[in-house]
Task: structure prediction
Amino acid sequence: MDAVEKAQSGHPGTPMGLSDITFEIFTRYLRYDPRDPAWIGRDRFVLSCGHASMLLYAMLHLSGYDLPLSEIEIDLPLSEIYDGVEFTPEPSDDED
Result:
């Protein structure tokens, strides 16, 4: 919630509502290595709800990826702050 407030962007409800299940997925099921984010055998976590992007930022931080809280709080797209994360932007309003 603090990062959403400091970034003045996003919504805290979805990340809070999905935090329990996301924690379980990250700690029990996903295969990944924060020391080797480009590892070919890693699992992918697909998050289609843009409002919950702060949840993914937080999980990457808590899972040991080099993603400091100071960078999470500025709310940039993951591709701009962390090279090891695959990112697909939403279409903009002016695209048909």
